[in-house]
């Protein structure tokens, strides 16, 4: 994806869209990798990143194509407790295809994640300066963990090695920082539109905030 974006002249405009203007952006699977500020398990120079999410992502975390899977997910941000709507609280069926996970939530830095750049087999996104007050506000927000998956890989490893492990370990599969959102799984491949409906509402909120800022300026 990054190679196609670079060859078509879209990589820098995308970085401006996400990091300078801080427009609402959602990336799924490989899109989560592109939106991360750091990605490991890659060759130096082999993966250009857009950035926008202060996280380190582990690529192909669950293995090859044959290790792709589906799982019921608990997504608290979709729940509507005040509505009494059971539909909003039901599990979400996530589809994981050579999926990454968020290995670590990083500190919010004004520049490049230099500590990550020093790590072996790790690439980082170039820094960009937010373009206005709203972009600066979005940039300064911490990363929120939006969803986790109970340690699937840890259990598989434990089974193969026949050693005890941490059954409570959970993999981070969805994060948000301001109006940038990323998921390890593919909501677009399901018939469940709840995440898309939620995201459209978040986009509307962002548009209203930008309009309010313009009226005040």
Structure description:
The chain has about 220 residues and is an alpha+beta fold. The chain contains eight helices and ten strands. The strands form three sheets. Strands 1-10-9-8 form a four-stranded mixed beta sheet. It has a four-stranded mixed beta sheet with strand order 6-3-2-7. Strands 4-5 form a two-stranded antiparallel sheet. The relative contact order is 0.20.
Give the overall average pLDDT.
Answer: 87
Helical content stands at 25-40%
- Strand residues, percent: 15-25%
Shape: globular
Walk across the major sheet and give the strand order.
1-10-9-8
**Termini, distance in Å?**
38 Å
Task: Please work out how many helical segments DSSP would assign.
Answer: 8
Which oligomerization state do the chains in this entry correspond to? single chain
Protein traits:
globular, single chain, 217 residues, alpha+beta, four-stranded mixed β-sheet
Give the secondary structure arrangement, pairings included.
Layout: H1 2-7, H2 11-20, E1 25-28, H3 30-35, E2 36-40, E3 53-58, E4 69-73, H4 86-89, E5 92-96, E6 101-105, H5 114-117, E7 122-124, H6 133-140, E8 144-150, H7 152-161, E9 170-177, E10 180-183, H8 194-216
Parallel strand pairs: 1-10, 2-3
Antiparallel strand pairs: 2-7, 3-6, 4-5, 8-9, 9-10
Can you summarize this structure?
The chain has 217 residues and is α+β, with helices and mostly antiparallel strands.
């Amino acid at each position: 994806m990054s190679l196609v974006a670079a060859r078509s002249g879209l990589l820098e405009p995308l970085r401006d869209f996400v990091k300078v203007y801080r427009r609402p952006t959602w990336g799924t699977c490989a899109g989560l990798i592109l939106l991360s500020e750091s990605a490991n398990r890659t060759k130096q120079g082999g993966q250009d990143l857009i950035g926008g999410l202060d996280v380190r992502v582990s690529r192909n975390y669950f293995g090859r194509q044959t290790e792709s899977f589906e799982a019921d997910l608990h997504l608290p941000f979709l729940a509507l407790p005040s509505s009494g709507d059971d539909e909003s609280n039901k599990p979400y069926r996530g589809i994981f295809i050579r999926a990454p996970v968020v290995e670590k939530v990083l500190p919010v830095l004004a520049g490049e994640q230099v500590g990550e750049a020093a790590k072996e087999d790790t690439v980082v996104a170039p820094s960009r300066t937010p373009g206005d007050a709203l972009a600066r506000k979005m940039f300064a927000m911490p990363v929120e963990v939006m969803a986790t998956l109970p340690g699937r890989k840890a259990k598989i490893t434990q089974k193969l090695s026949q050693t005890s492990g941490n059954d409570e370990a959970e993999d981070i599969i969805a994060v948000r920082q301001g109006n940038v959102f990323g998921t390890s799984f593919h909501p677009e491949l399901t018939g469940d539109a709840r995440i898309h409906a939620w995201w459209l509402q978040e986009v509307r909120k962002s548009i209203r905030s930008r309009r309010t800022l313009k009226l005040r300026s």
